[in-house]
């Protein structure tokens, strides 16, 4: 009897699992992870890297009984050795692969998309009636009217609940017409009425925060480069006819036999001597 997957009261056989992968749009992510397995086979981790990652930054020497250390770590974390090799170790390999493959591209990627990462806080009043928008704009610009009070009274958007205040949000998420004005970085300046979709905005820039290449930004950019690369690799594979197919039992048996050696190689722990 073949194996099946049990989820709650549901039992899924092989055909049903395949159908579920397609239905729930999980097939392409799985293909990407299988492709990644082939890549990270060539990314070994030294005992030093593994020890310092698991144990944390420390001056402690690497244990002579390294396998015993791994077993003890698994016991403390409540995981099996199989889980360690297939999940924990794999994730560490993926992180090292990201560093090796994309770390050198971070600075250029930051300069390329810096404008998308800038953050702003602003106040806005959304209206559909142009004369009213003009009236409120002049009240704010010339008469020193309170923006919060006008937003709470007149704005048609959800920001009326916060007195018109929005942010911080990426500048790139704003309508192009508004973002272009905010790039001048004139904090406190009121702009309007600005045609946006079917309405008009009256806005004031409250704060402009230029993006900086700190550690958090580096991590975000590395993950972005990695995800783009993985999507490209996955797309290239799924577009090749016959690369992904449902095999009959006979054909499957031949494929399993042919790939047995490769599967055994993947299962070994890729830990270098040092």
TrEMBL record:
Its EC number is 5.2.1.8. GO terms for molecular function: peptidyl-prolyl cis-trans isomerase activity. Residues 103-207 form the PpiC domain. It catalyses: [protein]-peptidylproline (omega=180) = [protein]-peptidylproline (omega=0). PROSITE patterns: PPIC_PPIASE_2 (PS50198). It comes from the Bacteria. SUPFAM superfamilies: FKBP-like. InterPro entries: PPIase_dom_sf, PPIase_PpiC, PrsA_foldase. Keywords: Isomerase, Rotamase, Signal. It comes from Stenomitos frigidus ULC18. It holds the Pfam family Rotamase. This is peptidylprolyl isomerase.
């Amino acid at each position: 009897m073949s194996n099946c997957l049990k989820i709650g009261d549901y039992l899924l056989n092989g055909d049903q699992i395949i159908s579920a992968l397609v239905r729930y749009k999980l097939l392409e992510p799985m293909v990407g992870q299988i492709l990644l397995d082939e890549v990270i086979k060539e990314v070994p981790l030294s005992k030093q890297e593994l020890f310092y990652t698991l144990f944390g930054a420390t001056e402690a020497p690497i244990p002579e009984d390294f396998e015993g250390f791994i077993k003890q770590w698994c016991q403390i974390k409540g995981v099996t050795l199989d889980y360690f090799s297939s999940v924990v170790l794999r994730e560490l390999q993926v992180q090292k692969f990201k560093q090796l493959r994309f770390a050198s591209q971070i600075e250029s990627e930051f300069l390329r998309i810096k404008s998308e990462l800038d953050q702003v806080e602003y106040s806005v009043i959304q209206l559909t009636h142009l004369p009213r928008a003009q009236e409120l704009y002049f009240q704010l610009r010339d008469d020193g009217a309170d923006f919060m009070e006008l937003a709470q009274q007149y704005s048609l958007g959800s920001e009326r609940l916060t007195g018109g205040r929005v942010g911080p949000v990426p500048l790139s998420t704003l309508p192009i017409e508004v973002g272009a004005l905010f790039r001048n970085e004139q904090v406190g300046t009121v702009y309007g009425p600005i045609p946006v979709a079917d309405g008009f905005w009256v806005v004031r820039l409250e704060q402009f925060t230029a993006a900086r290449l700190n550690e958090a930004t580096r991590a975000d950019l590395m993950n972005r480069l990695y995800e783009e690369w993985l999507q490209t690799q996955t797309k290239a594979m799924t577009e090749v006819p016959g690369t992904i197919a449902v095999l009959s039992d006979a054909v499957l048996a031949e494929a399993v036999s042919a790939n047995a050696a490769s599967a055994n190689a993947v299962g070994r722990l890729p830990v270098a001597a040092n």
